[in-house]
Design a protein that fits this description.
- This protein is an alpha+beta fold and 459 residues long.
- It folds into three domains: 3-96; 101-206, 2-Layer Sandwich (Phosphorylase Kinase, domain 1); 212-458, Aminoglycoside phosphotransferase (APH), C-terminal lobe (Aminoglycoside 3'-phosphotransferase, Chain: A, domain 2).
- Helix content is 40%, strand content 22%.
- It contains twelve helices and 18 strands.
- The strands form four sheets. The chain has a seven-stranded antiparallel β-sheet with strand order 6-7-12-13-10-9-8.
- A hairpin with a 2-residue loop joins β17 (328-331) and β18 (334-337).
- α5 (241-262) packs parallel to α10 (384-406), α6 (269-289) packs antiparallel against α7 and α11 (418-439) runs antiparallel to α12.
- It is globular and about 65 Å long.
- 42% of the residues are buried.
Length: 459
Amino acid sequence: MSSTPWMDVVLQALPDWLATRRWFAGKDRPIDAVQALETTVLVDGDPALVHLVVEVRQGDRRDVYQLLVGARRAQAPDVPAAAVIEVDDGVTMYEASGDADLTSELLGLLAREATIGDVSFRLEPDVVLDAGLRGRPITSEQSNTSLVFGSQYILKLFRRLSPGLNKDLVLHRALRDAGCQHIAQPLGSIAGRFDGQETTLGMVQQFFPDAADGWAMATTSVRDLMADPGTAPEEHGGDFSGEARRLGQAVAHVHADLARALGTADVGPDELAGKVRTMTARLDAVAADVPQLAPHVPGIRAALERVRELPTPLRSQYVHGDLHLGQVLRTVGGWTVIDFEGEPAAPLEERAALRSPLRDVAGMLRSFDYAAHQLLVGQPDDVQALTYGALNWAQVNRDAFCEGYASVSDLGDPREHAVLLTALELDKAVYEVGYEHANRPDWLEVPLSSIARIVEGVA
């Protein structure tokens, strides 16, 4: 079945359909135009599979996304109605990540290292893939799409594309070469061309079928504690502090391996002042949109300004960039850190920049605070015992994480770098305020209350 006629139909239908996708970043703005940049037929016939790269224009913003588009004359199996882009002349056109018949073809293309047009499928050195496995999508992801094949592999497709190699692939390769024990091994990748550069479209990695999600483990511990609010975390059967300490050690090992593999750089006073300006600009932008932040702005600004006074040079290096409890897995062998892409909403140059390792530490400390307080959202204000329990749980696990980190890292205890760590944690909390205001207003009090506590503690 020729792809040309029905691809025109797909492009006409995409503006309305894209706005319904969790991974589409422009849902808050109207789409002015969608233009095809690359169209590559990966599987011809019925069903067909087409790799489509489109440019989405929204005002002066230009974003590039990739899609896997399937087409069948018969009803597509295992494809939810929401995945259907259009039906025309008896052909159903749909987002194909849920079609196991077609996604299994991707694994086959990887296994034989095929090249079709500008799309190349490559294996890492000494890797052999079992091409006979069927894929199934992971439905919890928001920014990208991941497919699991059997119990062995996971293929991540990067939805929003930027020219060049994706940081996730680059850092995983560096950590593998450094012998890091806290990552899922990279097994292969998919590459295309965008703006004249080779661009990472996806990567396949080792999959851990029995792994537990760090966020789920932590919130289960909090939930168990809330069931008996008079009990201290360390006295409770659901105590998480041992895991928090081991997690701190794992993150420190990852930082050390990244520094050894890719080097470090010194941050001088001028660059440090620039980083303060960036954080202050973010504060001003969020405060302009969220009036509830206004009472805390002077205290936040003062904490950020203290960073200028730190003795230099400070160390910077490649870091995870978006570290939180949802980005770590507890496997039989210990903690595994995943998704080194960085904050998906951040510009590519910001995600690729060297940063203080304390940026990751601050992200994890914020995540412990979120895990502790998320069960209080919507609860009566007078639940003092629960609030005390949440604060206590968060502090115990924040301390345990820092102790674990200090036992491995040559930076020592993160808490000894209080000025920088506090500024980075406040910067992260300001970002959270903006996110919650735009997406989950009921959760806004979680980062706001944290900011109030942090500012009070450094006043």
